Amino acid sequence: MSTTFEEQNEQIPVPVETVPASASEEINQSAADDVNVTIENSEDASVATQGTDATAATSTTEPAIVQPKVVLPSLKDLPSLSSNSAFANSKVSWGPNMKPQPVPVSNFSTPSLSSSSLSPSPVSAAKRMRSRNIQETFTLDLRSQLSITKPELSRIVQNVKQTYNVSVESTLSKNSRTFLISGIAENVQSAKRDLVKKLTRPIDDSMTVPARCRAAIIGAGGKTIREISDQFEVRINLARENNPDSYDEDLNDFTVDVHLHGDFESVNLAKRKIEEIVKEETKTLNIRVPVEDAKIAQFVNLSSLSIPDDVKCVFYQDSAEVAISGPREDVKSTKVQVQDFLNQLSSTLTEEKVKIPTKFQFLIDAKQLKEEFNVIVTFPTDPTDELVSFVGQADKVKEAIEFARSNSKKFVVDSLDISKSHSKNLVHAKNLALYFIKYNVLKPIEDAYPDVKIVLPAVSTLKDTPNVTIQLSSKSDSSNEIKSARKELISFVNSITPLETLTISDLDYELFHKSIHHILLATEDEVPYVQVGDYFHNNDDSIVLFSKASDEDFKPSAEETMERLEKINLNLDPLRTKQKNMSTKTFELPAEIQDDLLAGQDNVTLKLILDEVSHEEGNIQIRLHTPDANHISIRGDEKAVKIVHKALNSIVENPSKKSKLTVEIPNNTVARLVGTKGANLNQIREKFNCQIDVPNHDAKDNDKTVEVTLTGLEYNLTQAKKYIVAESKKWADIITKELIVPQKLHRNLIGANGVYRNRLQDKYNVFINFPRTSDIVTIRGPSRGVKQAYEELSALLEFERENGYKMVINVPAEHVPRVIGKNGSTINDIRADFGVEMDFLQKNTDLKVKETGEVELEITGTRSAIKEAAKKVESIVSEASDFITESLEVDRKYHRTIVGAGGNTLRTIINKAGGEDIRNKSIDIPNANAESNVITIQGPKSFVESVKRQINKIVEDGENSITKELEIPNERQGALVGPGGMVRRQLETEFNIIMNVPNKNETGPVTLTGLPDNIAKAEKKIMTEIIRDNFDREIQVPAALQEFVSERGAFTQKLRLEEFVHVRHGNATRRANRLNRHNLVIPVEKVRPTEEEKKQQFKVTIEEVGEPRIDGEEGEIPWRLTYEPIDFSEILTEDNELKADTPVKIDEAKKAETLDRVVKQIEDRIAKAATSTFVGYVWCADPRKFNKLVGPGGSNIKKIRDEADVVIDVPKRSDKVKDIVYVRGSKEGVEKAQELIIENMKN
Fold it and tell me: For domain 804-882, is the CATH number 3.30.1370.10?
């Protein structure tokens, strides 16, 4: 160690050793030469200038030859430089009792130690001179020194002095030897090291460093550690394994030992070098602060904290942790702030519970209360619990509750009981609710009506509920949207009939639910499924398959749907075979042992047994206290039953929970067994419900094993032992492999958000470290995984080297947003199209960018791809340079015309201007309620000019426009609008006009605005084609009865052929056609015969199903009747040529009579619906006989219809069900029709 000198107030006896005259003279001369030297060695302490004689300037010998003590002169006797008389009174502060003294600040060349005893000197006013020379002292403990003779010591000192050109002095005390070395700073340090090395014994020392610094200390291929070892001539051993129980929370790391061997000076220097590396590696810190109070997690907002700029502080709500990273000291201070903030937040929160009926709880908008009041609302999970929790600051909680109460009064609530659908099929309704919940299939409806909230029933209430009610709510001003959303919801529910689902219940849920999930997940995109047991904890065995809506134009038939579902069902056949081959056995086990060791849903032993069976890919079902209290029932495959039987035998034979078992593991795996803060050990204890004792051990001896003692139930211990042995093999197989990767390629190999690294780590169960300041990438993990990860990472590195060409181009700062595009769309497209990486190297706010006006864009990839990508960027910049913005003042009355119906006119303007392929062009037209009349156009100059010309033309035409009113009856005005405004848009687009039609509950004329010629053409079309009363009678038919009344189109065809009356439906034509083609529901399984019944050739079935109404269809369908007789005698001339425009003379009396008769028939069919509550089915073994049933031109089937007064549907060749005739009517009529049908086909 180094020390300093200080003036002594009294004389000190100092042991002085004799040295040869030459050595003594040299030492004295050296001391005299250095009298005027300013001490500059700042590492230990400053040294005052020494004056001494040949006797006081000591040399080195052993303590055995110490001479009689002499009295040294006092420092008070030290003369000034101009006098020699004062030397008689000077003394040297030297020896084992010396104390450090600071160097006085002075302008003198020689510091004055006692100004009162020295007379002024001319030199004292001289300016201080700096010197390259220093003095350094250090002391060696005699016990650490080598045993050498005085001549050997003298030779060593002399050699050091000559080698390094320094002066060496020493003094000896009882237990130590102190040296003073003077000379040039570099030489002094070298001489000191050499002297210490030659005089002392080697020492062993150790230090601990963070484990993550291991790679930096070793360096690439061991380069760094070799340099330190060679430079200081020490042997360094860095431990491979972490020190157990050495986890440091602030470092978030374990520590490892570094062992050093060499002389103590070299060891100290090597330690300093290692400490510098550690300091550099740990200058930044990453820590996590857990938010232990769960109720405050959602209130954490760190924006109010004074966090240093170079510290990143983020709260992760999922893991309830605050992550802090940055410079070490700043991170530590930030951690204190965060902890204080969390404690304060925890103390200020309060919770209040309010009783709110379950059916109204959904009206509370928890998200809105969080945003406006920072209050968290928690709804009860138990449907019988009506207490809603509000958590936040006390005053805010009260405000939030009051707001929720008042806000809920603004809502309109409606409900839809879907259990009334599909003939009140409650089970189907529950399955639908689970399907909606699992797959969120109602989202399209929610998106279409954002102001409507749709709430499905809670799963916990579905099991025992007598109905399945969906709640809909919206604010009062959006009540119409509830009706629309409700209609769509009804339509959607109706579209999923029971025939489009398949319920499977022949597989045991408890045994096979995991296997079922695994199998059905493969086809989930095509056929979604719901496993009811997942939701109802009563081991419900039902599995429901749903037919997903097809993208095809036409919906598949019921038979096609069922065929697809059955195909998926067949995938479960292997499980059925397995279930069929299962056996059941009983095992005797006292009830008290069952309750003690196996009972409970979370019982560890029972879980271990099931895990052991699952590991062997077996299936098992264990029933405690079955068939009686002292027995256990086991059901499963043979292998699984054997495993469970063996486990139960073990429990019976060794029921004690204090059994002991030992397991030996390699010494180097103990730390991993224990884990961070004992976390892994605690997990194993909980998993196997046992005590684990790990003895103290020498972590450095990797060749030994450690005996770990397990205490608990013997079966659990056996499983724990297997687990620990298997894991220890993995831990012992851990290796580290290094790959040299240039730092510039680290980012590419890591991937965006670490995607490439994470994939390799997960795939091969390894850890890959990319250091910030080194090219050495380390891969650590199981040897096999490390090897595979190394190969794959090497291949990726080779690829990056081949494709890692870079080009930097300059992009004008003003056009950077254009190159990036909205949400990065443009630059991402370029990346994808050309397979390159693109990164802007500066931000627009950087000083260099402000000076140059350009941002550097780096493109990485192959040479050809870079070239193409650069061209694309240049084209975007070129286009952006031509980008202009112009404003056009246009009277607001023309804005609607410019936009056009549905935006058609505006799209036409853009297309004509060539805007289809232009990015970022825009035409900004003020909203209807805005006061501005300025239209803003952005885009290339040619585009903007073209748009301006077209808009000016529209305005010019508008100046010449006129407005005309048309008197259209109110009941006919709807025809001008059409479904969804379709007719109005077509008219406005076709004739370039604006048409205003009064709203539904308003009266007034229809106005047309546009050029005179266009208005005339539009008026003609309206009057002659759209609203002309071109029918003779109109009758309204309930939409729900449309299919029955029309006889699926057969009745309207009969009216046309027999009565010459055409039926049209106006704007409801599409709906009427859809209802006419409504799918018939035929219970095929019930209707078709068994194998025995097939011998009879025919089978008749009849059932009562209710009125022939289509669920969910509201309103009416207009039937517009037109009498159009045909005079066949006048159709052809004598030359058999068709007369072109020969009008048919209509007998008005006959017309009226015919129309009255037809109206009466329609009304009768509507009335008949009330009695047509029966459906009959006639199955025929030979569908070819249906041709005979129909008869020529349908004569036979028509006769049966009329005679039995029923609706009959004979299957067509294109139908999926080709062997069943459908009959609908009264019971008597259906029975009579069935008899006639069979009789007709038999004859």
Answer: yes
